[in-house]
Amino acid sequence: MVVATIVAIELKLGANPVIAAFLHDVVEDTDYTMDDIRQRFGDDVAFLVSVVTKKSTGNYEISKQVDNYKQMLNSIHYDIRALLVKLADRLHNMRTLNRPLPPVERHD
User: Domain range for residue 13?
Assistant: First the structure.
Protein backbone atom coordinates (compact mmCIF):
# COMPACT_ATOMS: atom_id res chain seq x y z
CA MET A 1 0.00 0.00 0.00
CA VAL A 2 2.88 2.37 0.72
CA VAL A 3 4.23 2.00 -2.82
CA ALA A 4 0.81 2.91 -4.24
CA THR A 5 0.69 5.95 -1.94
CA ILE A 6 4.08 7.10 -3.22
CA VAL A 7 2.92 6.63 -6.82
CA ALA A 8 -0.37 8.48 -6.22
CA ILE A 9 0.65 11.30 -3.89
CA GLU A 10 4.36 11.91 -4.35
CA LEU A 11 4.61 11.09 -8.06
CA LYS A 12 1.04 12.15 -8.91
CA LEU A 13 0.52 9.42 -11.49
CA GLY A 14 -2.85 8.22 -12.74
CA ALA A 15 -5.06 5.32 -11.79
CA ASN A 16 -3.35 2.53 -13.73
CA PRO A 17 0.13 3.12 -12.27
CA VAL A 18 -1.45 3.26 -8.80
CA ILE A 19 -3.23 -0.05 -9.40
CA ALA A 20 0.03 -1.54 -10.71
CA ALA A 21 1.79 -0.30 -7.58
CA PHE A 22 -0.78 -2.11 -5.42
CA LEU A 23 -0.25 -5.28 -7.47
CA HIS A 24 3.52 -5.11 -7.96
CA ASP A 25 4.24 -8.10 -5.67
CA VAL A 26 1.10 -10.16 -6.36
CA VAL A 27 2.58 -12.39 -9.08
CA GLU A 28 5.71 -13.00 -7.00
CA ASP A 29 3.92 -13.69 -3.72
CA THR A 30 0.65 -15.41 -4.68
CA ASP A 31 -0.80 -17.91 -7.14
CA TYR A 32 -2.16 -15.11 -9.35
CA THR A 33 -0.71 -14.93 -12.85
CA MET A 34 -0.21 -12.09 -15.29
CA ASP A 35 -3.22 -13.43 -17.20
CA ASP A 36 -5.33 -13.08 -14.04
CA ILE A 37 -4.21 -9.47 -13.67
CA ARG A 38 -4.80 -8.76 -17.37
CA GLN A 39 -8.34 -10.19 -17.23
CA ARG A 40 -9.23 -8.28 -14.07
CA PHE A 41 -7.45 -4.94 -14.64
CA GLY A 42 -6.70 -4.73 -18.37
CA ASP A 43 -3.66 -4.71 -20.63
CA ASP A 44 -2.17 -1.43 -19.39
CA VAL A 45 -2.05 -2.46 -15.73
CA ALA A 46 -0.82 -5.94 -16.68
CA PHE A 47 2.00 -4.42 -18.73
CA LEU A 48 3.11 -2.17 -15.86
CA VAL A 49 2.99 -5.05 -13.37
CA SER A 50 4.92 -7.33 -15.71
CA VAL A 51 7.73 -4.79 -16.03
CA VAL A 52 8.22 -4.34 -12.29
CA THR A 53 7.70 -8.00 -11.31
CA LYS A 54 10.77 -10.15 -10.71
CA LYS A 55 10.71 -13.18 -12.94
CA SER A 56 10.78 -16.48 -11.04
CA THR A 57 14.10 -18.24 -11.48
CA GLY A 58 14.29 -20.61 -8.53
CA ASN A 59 17.98 -19.96 -7.90
CA TYR A 60 18.16 -16.17 -8.07
CA GLU A 61 21.70 -15.58 -9.30
CA ILE A 62 23.29 -12.23 -10.12
CA SER A 63 23.11 -12.98 -13.85
CA LYS A 64 19.37 -13.55 -13.54
CA GLN A 65 19.01 -10.22 -11.73
CA VAL A 66 20.92 -8.51 -14.53
CA ASP A 67 18.63 -10.14 -17.10
CA ASN A 68 15.58 -8.94 -15.18
CA TYR A 69 16.87 -5.38 -15.07
CA LYS A 70 17.74 -5.45 -18.78
CA GLN A 71 14.23 -6.64 -19.57
CA MET A 72 12.77 -3.96 -17.30
CA LEU A 73 14.86 -1.22 -18.95
CA ASN A 74 13.86 -2.40 -22.42
CA SER A 75 10.19 -2.29 -21.41
CA ILE A 76 10.59 1.12 -19.79
CA HIS A 77 11.66 2.44 -23.16
CA TYR A 78 7.99 2.10 -24.08
CA ASP A 79 6.47 3.45 -20.86
CA ILE A 80 8.22 5.59 -18.22
CA ARG A 81 5.41 4.90 -15.74
CA ALA A 82 6.82 1.41 -15.18
CA LEU A 83 10.15 2.90 -14.12
CA LEU A 84 8.38 5.27 -11.73
CA VAL A 85 6.44 2.40 -10.10
CA LYS A 86 9.68 0.42 -9.72
CA LEU A 87 11.47 3.45 -8.24
CA ALA A 88 8.59 3.97 -5.79
CA ASP A 89 9.03 0.37 -4.64
CA ARG A 90 12.78 0.88 -4.19
CA LEU A 91 12.19 4.19 -2.38
CA HIS A 92 9.85 2.45 0.06
CA ASN A 93 12.46 -0.28 0.60
CA MET A 94 15.14 2.31 1.37
CA ARG A 95 12.87 4.28 3.71
CA THR A 96 12.24 1.16 5.78
CA LEU A 97 15.80 -0.24 5.89
CA ASN A 98 16.49 0.88 9.46
CA ARG A 99 13.15 -0.14 10.92
CA PRO A 100 13.27 -3.12 13.27
CA LEU A 101 11.49 -6.21 12.07
CA PRO A 102 8.16 -6.92 13.78
CA PRO A 103 8.28 -9.67 16.40
CA VAL A 104 7.41 -13.10 15.11
CA GLU A 105 4.40 -14.71 16.74
CA ARG A 106 4.97 -18.24 17.90
CA HIS A 107 2.22 -20.79 17.56
CA ASP A 108 3.42 -23.87 19.40
Answer: 2-95
